[in-house]
């Protein structure tokens, strides 16, 4: 019997694997939260499948998403990244990744972890929506507006409300699996 999935993943095996194992699963690990933040940043204006297909290239290019290392990137490393055809070579997004790594560590200092910071917006519990179809899933919410504004105030770049809502969905802060999807009750 075929599993019912959210229809956004279609029949692409990579998309289906991501949907079935990662999307919407609550993430409390700072390293993983940072990885998704970087990937969502680069996704802005592009399709998520494009980012998924380049995910391992990003992992290699950005030192396994090690924010401590990324925060120390210099002009030579920036030049190396801008020449890397395996990633999205957007100068502003690359610069944002470096400055976001620095801002990320500042949040860690203030809250003990980025996880403590981001999950405080939902009192540490995922928001479980009940979308019947993809049309019921918003691109932004009042909460993503609030988090986006707060992150920008803290010096983060490329963290508009749409990017933040996608991050919330990816990291399980919000469960937007459609109610018929087999993952809805699993996450």
TrEMBL record:
Gene Ontology process terms (BP): base-excision repair
Keyword Transcription among UniProt keywords: no
Residues bound to Zn(2+): 6, 19, 177, 181
Molecular-function GO term, any one: DNA-3-methyladenine glycosylase activity
Catalysed reactions listed for this entry: Hydrolysis of alkylated DNA, releasing 3-methyladenine
Keywords: DNA damage, DNA repair, Hydrolase, Metal-binding, Zinc
Signal peptide region: none
Entry EC number(s): 3.2.2.20
Keyword Electron transport: no
Segments traversing the membrane: none
Xref: InterPro entries: Adenine_glyco, DNA-3mA_glycosylase, DNA_glycosylase, Tag
A Pfam entry, by short name: Adenine_glyco
Function as written in the Swiss-Prot or TrEMBL entry: Hydrolysis of the deoxyribose N-glycosidic bond to excise 3-methyladenine from the damaged DNA polymer formed by alkylation lesions.
Family matches, as NCBIfam families: tag
Protein name: DNA-3-methyladenine glycosylase I
């Amino acid at each position: 019997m075929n599993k019912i999935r959210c229809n956004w993943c279609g029949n692409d095996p990579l998309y289906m694997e991501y949907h079935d194992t990662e999307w919407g699963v609550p993430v409390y690990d700072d390293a993983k939260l940072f990885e998704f933040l970087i990937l969502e940043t680069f996704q802005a204006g592009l399709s998520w499948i494009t980012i998924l297909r380049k995910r391992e290239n990003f992992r290699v290019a950005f030192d396994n998403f090690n924010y401590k290392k990324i925060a120390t990137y210099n002009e030579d490393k920036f030049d190396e990244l801008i020449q890397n055809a395996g990633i999205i070579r957007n100068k502003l997004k690359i610069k944002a990744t470096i400055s976001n790594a620095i801002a990320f560590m500042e949040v860690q200092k203030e809250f003990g972890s980025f996880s403590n910071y981001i999950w405080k917006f939902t009192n540490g519990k995922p928001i479980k929506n009940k979308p019947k179809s993809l049309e019921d899933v918003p691109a932004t919410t009042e909460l993503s507006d609030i988090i986006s504004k707060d992150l920008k105030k803290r010096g983060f770049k490329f963290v508009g409300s749409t990017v933040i809502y996608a991050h919330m969905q990816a990291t399980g802060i919000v469960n937007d699996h459609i109610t018929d999807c087999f993952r809805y009750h699993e996450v």
